[in-house]
Amino acid sequence: MRSRKTLASKKKQSGRKNVDWKVLDIMHPDAAGIDVGGNEHWVAVSPDRDAEPVRRCGCFTADLREMARWLTEKGVRSVAMQSTGVYWMPVLEVLEQHGLEVYLVNARHTKNLPGRKSDIQECQWLLKLHTFGLLNNSFQPTDEIRIARALWRQRGNLVADASSAIQRIQKALIEMNIQLTSVLTDISGVSGMTIIGAVLEGERDPWQLAALAQPGVKAIPADIAKSLEGNWREELLFVLRQEVELYRVYQEKIAACDQQLRQHLEKLGSKVDLEAQPIDRSPAEGKEGKQACTRVRSADGTVSDYRYRLGANQRHGCADGADRDRRGRGGPERVSEREAVRQLAGIVPHQ
Questions:
Q1: Which end of the chain, N or C, is more open, meaning fewer C-beta atoms within 10 Å of its C-beta?
Q2: Which element (helix H / strand E) includes 190?
C-alpha cells in the first residue's frame, strides 16, 4: 500500500515540472571569446549585442585598448581566451585594466570537449563554451609573484647558457688533448678557471700551470702537469677564449639578476612574524653530512620545512665559481628554487 502511494506521489511530482535535460544552463550571460594569435586577434560577442558580433583586432596596445572598450560598451563582463604561447599576456593585462574578468583556458580543455567547430570560428566556439560554463579558468598569480617568476626564469636561462658555455670549453680542451677534466671535477671552479686564464694569457709550461691549482686540490702536481700537455691549436684557443668570455658575462648577468630579485623580494615584506614565531632549527644527520631543518609557520597556519647544508667551506648558490675539485672540497651545495628564493629574500640566513 505504501509503495503504491509513493509511486503515485512521484508520478504526480514528475508531472508538475517537465525538465528538459538537453538544455544547458547559461553560466556567463555577458561573455565573449577571443582567439589569440601572433599578428591578430579575433573577438566574438553574442549576436544580440552587436550587428557585427565577430571582429578582428590588431596586436598593438592601442588596438587592444580599443578592443577592451568595445567589449565594455557591449556589456561584456567575462572573456575567455586560450593560453597561446606568450601572446595572451598583453591581452590579459589590458582586459584586466578595464575591469573585465578573464578566463585563461588551457587549449587541451577545448580540444577534448565534444562538438564540432569546423563551420564557425575559434572565437565563437570559445564564446559558446564559456557561456555555458564548460571552461575552467587557469590559476593566475598576483603581479608581485609574476615579477619574481619572470626574474627567476631569466636567471634559469642564464644558468643554462653558462652550463652550455662550460660544455663548449670542455670540448675545446679535449680537442687539444688537455685532460684537465680528468683531475678536476668542475673546470669552472677557482683552480680550473685560473689555469685556463693563464693558458689564454700565453703560459704553456705544464708545471707552471699546475702550480696555479688551489691548495685544497688533492691531485698531485705531477698528474695535473701531465694533463696539461696538449697540441695548443690556434683555432681551438680562439674558441676557448670566446667561450670563457661568454661564461664570465653569464656570471655577471646572473649576479645582476640575483640582485634584482633580492630587491624585489625585499619590497614584498615578510609573511612571517619572526618575533612571535621564531625559526626553530634542529640539527639532523643525513647521508651527506650535517643538516639543519628550518620550520616556518605562515599566517594561515601552514608549517613548511626547509633543509639546507651546513659546512665551514660551503656556500649556497652555484654561480660564484667556487672550487669543486674531485679530490678536494665538495663545493657549494645545490639548493632548490624555493630555498634559493627564500635566501635571496633574507628569510633563511647563510651559514
A1: N
A2: helix 190-200
Euclidean distance between CA atoms 94 and 90, whole angstroms: 6
Q: Do residues 315 and 298 touch, judged by C-beta distance below 8 A?
A: no
- Which residue did the predictor score with more confidence, 345 or 176? 176
| Rounded Cα–Cα distance for residues 320 and 323 (Å) | 9
To the question of pTM greater than 0.70 for the whole model, the response is no
For 279-303, the pLDDT digits (tens) are: 665 555 444 444 444 443 334 443 3
* Distance of alpha carbon 324 from alpha carbon 53, whole angstroms: 64
Cα 155–chain centre separation: 9
Name residue 99's amino acid. Answer: G
pLDDT 10s digits, 308-339: 333 333 333 333 333 334 333 333 444 455 55
Contacts 24+ apart (CB under 8 A), 261-267: 261/148, 261/151, 261/152, 261/155, 261/341, 261/344, 262/344, 262/345, 262/346, 264/144, 264/147, 264/148, 264/151, 265/148, 265/341, 265/344, 265/345, 265/346, 266/345, 266/346
91: nearest Cα among 137, 129, 59, 126: 59
Helix (H) or strand (E) holding 58: strand 54-58
Report the residue count for the chain.
351
Contact predicate 311/290, CB 8 Å: yes
Q: Other C-beta atoms within 10 Å of 12: how many? A: 9
Cα separation values, 107 from 11, 46, 56, 81, 185, Å: 44, 22, 21, 9, 44
